[in-house]
Specification:
With 242 residues, this protein is an all-alpha fold. It is built from eight helices and no strands.
Length: 242
């Protein structure tokens, strides 16, 4: 897709800088999330969680609840699972992309669900007592809505970025998908079903898993390109020896 026929040295300065920035940002966020996990396992109450709740209380207004309820549904299991199945079928049977794209997309969605469930089972953090109208049936930490949204919508951003759409269309769609990810994440705090620290860890958990899946896909495509070229060279040599 992006790098199957390129080396890192072949990329422009801007692209290199962006990739390095994203790498260090995710790395720093992952380290911070690990620290948060240890503090939560120690049953420590985090000051930032209370401060964010105080901010939400202070800024809540009429009409906001409907908005956050609606955008939260875009990260629900039902919506993401249904959309994932439809997109997987498209990748496998209708798209001109390699079938490997569909397989890595499926791995991304199934994997983030499993990892998030394992993390929830390991922490067993109680849900916050904030608004009381919305209750989750699993551990609060980390946010499954957030990790799932990052992988699903992030993978869509990757595919669209590699498409032949114009730059303006790509930028507009990327901006919309980024807004959806942030909106889903923040809605979970507004609705009182997650702490802010749940969102932070869920976000970086999703980022790391998404990066691993995309890297795996790029490496697979790179290997297939090299293999195809080697086969073509062998055929050319065989024809030349006739």
């Amino acid at each position: 897709m992006y790098f199957s026929e390129k080396r890192f040295s072949d990329l422009g300065t801007g692209t290199k800088a962006l990739l390095l920035f994203m790498f260090f940002l995710v790395a720093a966020g992952t380290i911070y999330s690990i620290q948060l996990t240890w503090r939560i396992l120690s049953q420590e109450k985090l000051m930032m969680d209370q401060r964010v709740f105080d901010f939400v209380r202070a800024t809540s207004g009429e009409g906001q609840e409907w908005f956050f309820q609606s955008i939260s549904k875009l990260g629900s299991v039902v919506v993401l699972a249904t959309a994932s199945v439809l997109i997987l079928l498209y990748f496998l049977f209708l798209s001109s992309h390699s079938k490997w794209l569909g397989l890595y997309f499926a791995l991304g969605m199934a994997g983030v669900s499993l990892i998030t469930k394992l993390a929830k089972m390991s922490t067993s953090r109680d849900r916050p007592e904030f608004m009381g109208d919305y209750h989750g049936s699993t551990s609060s930490f980390p946010s499954g809505h957030t990790s799932g949204a990052v992988v699903f919508y992030g993978f869509m951003m990757y595919v669209i970025g590699a498409s032949k759409l114009g730059r303006k269309w790509k930028a507009a769609i990327h901006l919309l998908l980024t807004f959806i990810i942030v909106g889903i994440s923040m809605s979970r705090v507004y609705l009182g079903v997650h702490y802010f620290s749940d969102l932070v860890t869920g976000f970086f958990l999703g980022c790391v898993w998404l990066a691993l899946c995309i890297t795996g896909f790029e490496m697979t495509m790179r290997y297939r390109v090299k293999r195809k070229r080697a086969e073509e060279d062998e055929e050319s040599q065989a024809l030349g020896n006739l």
